[in-house]
Specification:
The chain is an alpha/beta fold. It is built from 16 helices and 21 strands. The protein has an eight-stranded mixed beta sheet. Strands 10-11-12 form a three-stranded antiparallel beta sheet. Helix 1 runs antiparallel to helix 2, helix 7 packs parallel to helix 13 and helix 12 packs parallel to helix 13. The two termini are 24 Å apart. The N terminus is likely disordered.
């Protein structure tokens, strides 16, 4: 069962971050919340959260919120493009001005040079919560030396396979976007796990203390029925310990102690804002690979038919037809996901077509696009993630920020920001832009995207289309894979 104390802490954090509060009230509430958290910390499983939340933190965040550039009035559309399973060192190795390293170390101190491995490689690496903990090696002060022990899930890998990078010839569209806009090289998953948990963090800022993948049913969520379960973490340890205690993957009471509030719920509550979640169908039953399938009141409510769209290519035709929600998530198909082991390399072109669709539309001047990868996929990265709570931060992944208000580097130089961000930063940007509250600990603590990325005083920059090998007709005509974009 979920630790009641941990749920209580998450709900207190949610209520703490409000808007329209003067500075004196903010400080008074901050002190009161700190006291409440300290009391809640007496319950099992809350010490990891409480130890990172002090009265000083809310004051710092208040100053940050006031000083960060606001997209309100300029940004009316936020597009979150979620790709699969790549670390920063793996995908942007050698990018000028970015923090990359062409070698790593194993647990014996041996230096291992990173070798090129294409997106189309047939190999795939394990990448679950225990894998991340082992990769990071907390016992050695996060030495990032455990990757040599990472196993292939299909088929057997060459030695030290995790120490690899994608050749630049296959990532040209990503590098084009980075050169034209902003690349963040200090961006971390908010969690230490794989895709199911990562996608929950991208809609709700938390994942009900779960880890690993749902098993036992036909789909990753409410469609799987009561037999579809995912295991829980023990959050009384930092990082957490894994358990075999199951939780049905259909969040909301009676499965969870409280209703899971998502960014979509906050958007619906405004009565004026809109959202869409574009995801592929998969399997003979036609279920949609969607994080919202695990949120009972959305899966079994009107939002499912109104706002969860499939196939994912509908995003392109919707934008071309003049439709773009205020907040949109775009999930790739299996073959266009960048996931290792799938035998294709069309992910960069897929993302470029999504970006080009917006960039060449009337929506460009009011949009911010965030392209990110949902976990590290088992691939080596040399930057140790800060340990902020029992479940994160996770291993570093790339982030591209594409907008007419993205700052532009000096002539001949691209913009790389080294500010620490996480998945919660994406939620926080949406919350700040549209006047919404924080959802959970990850977006409450996260740094909002600031003047290192955006300049809302500048005129909207003209969009230059990203060069691609295949255009929208290819993806619109592509046979449906009927496979999830990730099965790990």
């Amino acid at each position: 069962m979920l630790a009641v104390g941990a749920v209580r802490v998450r709900r207190v954090v949610t209520s703490w971050w409000g808007f329209g509060m003067n500075s004196g009230a903010f400080v008074r509430r901050s002190v009161a919340v700190a006291a409440a958290l300290a009391t809640a910390g007496c319950s099992s499983g809350t010490s990891a959260l409480v130890s990172h939340l002090t009265p000083a933190a809310p004051i710092r965040k208040a100053i940050e919120r006031l000083s960060a550039p606001s997209g309100s009035g300029k940004i009316q559309h936020i597009v979150i493009v979620v790709q699969e399973n790549r670390s920063f060192d793996n995908l942007f190795q050698g990018y000028p001005g970015a923090n990359t390293q062409p070698y790593g170390y194993d647990s014996s101190g041996n230096q291992i040079a990173l070798k090129p491995v294409g997106l189309e490689s047939g190999f795939d690496l394990a990448h679950f919560f225990p894998t991340a903990v082992n990769d990071i090696d907390y016992a050695k002060s996060e030495a990032m030396d455990g990757f040599a022990a990472t196993k292939c899930t299909k088929p057997s890998c060459p030695p030290d396979f995790a120490y690899s990078y994608v050749p630049r010839s296959e990532t040209k569209p990503y590098w084009q976007m980075a050169r034209q806009f902003v690349l963040a090289d200090n961006f971390f998953a908010s969690d230490l796990d794989a895709s199911f948990v990562g996608h929950q963090f991208l809609i709700a800022g938390q994942a009900e203390q779960t880890w690993g993948l749902p098993v036992g049913g036909a789909a990753w969520g409410c469609d799987g029925g009561p037999s579809e379960v995912v295991d829980l973490l023990d959050p009384s340890f930092v990082p957490a310990h894994t358990t075999k205690n199951p939780l049905q993957t259909c969040f909301d009471p009676p499965v969870t102690a409280a209703t899971d509030t998502t960014l979509a719920d906050e958007i619906d509550a405004t009565g004026t804002l809109t959202w869409r979640y574009y995801a592929p169908t998969y399997g003979q039953l036609g279920y949609i690979w969607s994080a919202y399938d695990a949120i009972n009141h959305i899966r079994n409510g009107p939002d499912w038919a109104n706002d969860v769209k499939s196939p994912e290519t509908t995003f392109i035709t919707d934008v071309q037809g003049g439709t773009l929600a205020n907040v949109t998530w775009v999930i790739p198909s299996f073959f266009n996901s960048d996931h290792s082991g799938i035998g294709t390399k069309t992910g960069p072109d897929w993302v470029a077509n999504v970006v080009n669709a917006v960039g060449t539309s009337p929506f460009w001047n009011s949009t911010a696009i965030f392209v990110l990868w949902d976990d590290w996929g088992g691939w080596y990265d040399h930057v140790a993630p800060p340990l902020l709570d029992y479940d994160g931060l996770g291993i570093r992944v790339p982030l591209l920020v594409i907008s007419p208000y993205a700052i532009k580097g000096p002539k001949g130089h691209s913009t790389v920001t080294h500010t620490q961000y996480e998945f919660g930063s994406v939620l926080k940007f949406a919350e700040t832009t549209f006047g919404l509250s924080s959802l959970a600990a990850s977006d409450a603590r996260a740094t909002n995207f600031g003047s290192d990325i955006f300049n809302f005083s500048q005129p909207a920059r003209a969009f230059r289309a990203v060069k691609v090998n295949v255009g929208p007709k290819y993806f619109l005509g592509q046979p449906r894979s009927l496979l999830p974009p990730d099965e790990e």
